[in-house]
Amino acid sequence: PSEHGSLWPLPQKVQISDVSFKLMSSSFRIVDAKQSSAGPSCSLLQDAYRRYYEYMFGSAKRQQLYKSRRTGPTELTELQVWITSPDSECDGYPSVTSVESYELSVDQPFAVLKAPTVWGALHGLETFSQLVYEDEYGTKSINSTQINDFPRFAHRGILLDTSRHFLPVKVILANLETMAMNKINVFHWHIVDDPSFPYLSRTFPQLSRQGAYHPYTHVYTPADVKMVIEWARLRGIRVIPEFDTPGHTQSWGKGQADLLTPCYSGAKPSGTFGPVNPILNTTYDFMKLFFGEISTVFPDAYVHLGGDEVDFTCWKSNPDIQKFMEQQGFGDDYSKLESFYIQKLLEIVTATKKGYMIWQEVFDNGVKLKSDTVVHVWIGGGSNDEMSRVTAAGYTTILSAPWYLDYISYAQDWQKYYKVEPLNFNGTEAQKKLVIGGEACLWGEYVDATNLTPRLWPRASAVAERLWSAKDVTDINDAFNRLSMHRCRIYILVIFFFTFYHNYVHCYAV
Ligand SMILES: CC(=O)N[C@H]1NC[C@H](CO)[C@H](O)[C@@H]1O
Q: H-helix or E-strand containing 325?
């Protein structure tokens, strides 16, 4: 096996010795170091200690059988967690500027995990649990190890699409758990789209009542959304919601009259609808109220506004829009109308004190953007030219183009994702610094709770290591050895969810 054990993603600096210590479930404890700025009142860490104890030793109940005995000579009995900065950020939310580094020293008489904030401590606990192995007698052991670790990229995400197929909350929670096991720190929740609108809005409840696949069973209530956000926070994961407009909005029209553009065939409305209607003031009144709510429901500093794949056909067919184009002097360049809409939307969202991410078309169409806009590059497998263009324009950039996991193929396609080098584009060092990371996208056209897990894992793990580990970590054989073991760890945990949430494998006739 690799001299890196089964560690995934590979830490920046790791030395595993061949001196091993035994771990006894009845005597091993994870404790707050005396000097730590986060003590027993930090529920995020206390929750993590229990989680990782159960990962390592199985459910705690079974261990009560043994009385704790005297400590053997080669036994490790304690992991001390020491948060070093005065503000541990224990009750806060992770952000793109969070410090995620940690140092882990496994030695006798006890192991020490040092991190500036709780975010690094969570990663250190994951790494510690990955160092534990079972010998042929079933005894848990860990080798003396020194690790100094931090992520290469700050934004390491997974996009899930809950509109093309609804995903039960438990499926989302299970995948957040697995994301944390891969040190992924962003859940990009592509929550609504053309086919269904499962987000239950308190301001506009008819959007899901009319637009969801089912008004009660296929919606995310405010309580569901809160649960996902807190479950993610406890695992150091940001939740960035995407409400994609003006395209990909068919389901919005079911519950909000006059929001979408009526398409015409000749001089008469055809009865079908197109993108959001950009010429009505009522559109912007709605967006103000809607994104006002979103800014209070989702605590992350950023919201994703979409802006991808806007089809101009319907706008072109509508006489009122044709008139508007003339008045504005847009000629017949409809990307100017799209920019008109997006610019007003960006002003609305800026007024809610949120930053925004947009798909690359918004940049490609020359929309005036705020300097801290995050441009999300997705078109074309490589898209190195686009990365050069976007960073040359000075925008913060994240890469998804080579990591569309909804595209499936035969055999070990994880290797294709693993071999991507995000900074392989022509640009200055300053341009490269604008790339803050990337996301693996699992769009839902052909994905639901019955096949999501095997399609996402361990393929997304390849993206997770590419975004966490050092640039020169490219040895595919070493990766194969580690990933083969890591995969078992993931599946044992996810199967835990399958077995404990038997009703969670939902099959919807959609
Ligand atoms: C930004 C983006 O990717 N937009 C669409 N492109 C194709 C995808 C499927 O691979 C989805 O349909 C998605 O909604």
A: helix 319-328
pLDDT of residue 1: 47
> DSSP per residue over 272-306, as a string?
EEEEE-TT-HHHHHHHHHHHHHHHHH--SSEEE--
Q: Is the CB of 406 under 6 A from ligand 1?
A: yes
404 Cβ closer than 6 Å to some ligand 1 atom: yes
Task: Specify the residue with its C-alpha closest to ligand 1, atom 3.
Answer: 378
For ligand 1, the distance from its centroid to the CA atom of residue 404, given in whole angstroms, is 9
User: Which tokens go with 174?
Assistant: 């299970």
133 closest CA partner among 26, 1, 27, 6: 6
Q: Is the beta carbon of 308 within 6 A of some atom in ligand 1?
A: yes
> pLDDT averaged over the chain?
94
Using a 6 Å cutoff on CB, does residue 379 contact ligand 1?
no
Q: In sequence order, which residues have a C-beta less than 8 Å from that of residue 41 and are 6 or more positions away?
A: 90
Q: From the CB of 403, is ligand 1 less than 6 Å away? A: no
User: Going by CA atoms, what residue is nearest to atom 7 of ligand 1?
Assistant: 443
Cα–Cα distance measured from residue 47 to residue 475, given in angstroms and rounded to the nearest whole number: 35
Report the candidate in 336, 387, 378, 385 with the shortest Cα–Cα distance to residue 358: 378
Q: How confident is the model at residue 58 (pLDDT cuts 50, 70, 90)?
A: confident
Return the residue whose CA atom lies nearest to atom 4 of ligand 1.
Answer: 308
**Residue 474 backbone dihedrals phi, psi, to 5 degrees:** -135, 5
Q: Please name the residue that has the structure tokens 């991808």.
A: 308
Distance CA 200, CA 197 (A): 8
What is the ipTM for the molecules in this complex? 0.99
Kindly state the DSSP code that residue 404 receives in the 8-state scheme: B
Q: What CA–CA distance (Å, rounded) separates 325 from 185?
A: 43
User: Smallest Cα–Cα separation from 256: which of 320, 321, 206, 326?
Assistant: 206
| Nearest ligand 1 atom, CA 308 | 1
Residues annotated as catalytic (active site), given as ranges:
309
Report how many helices (DSSP H) and strands (DSSP E) the chain contains, helices first: 17, 17
Of the chain, the end-to-end C-alpha distance in Å amounts to 44
Q: How far is the CA of 189 from the centre of ligand 1 (A)?
A: 13
> Is the preceding omega at residue 454 within 30 degrees of 0, hence cis?
no
Closest by CA to 240, choosing from 295, 178, 203, is 295
Q: Are strands 374-377 and 355-359 parallel, antiparallel or unpaired?
A: parallel
Closest residue by CA, ligand 1 atom 1: 308
Q: pTM to 2 decimals?
A: 0.96
Residue range 355-374, pLDDT digits in tens: 999 999 999 999 889 898 99
pLDDT tens-digit map of 233-245: 999 999 999 999 9
309 close to ligand 1 (CB < 6 Angstrom): yes
Of 190, 193, 251, 309, the residue with max ligand 1 atoms within 8 A of its CB, to mutate for a pocket test, comes to: 309
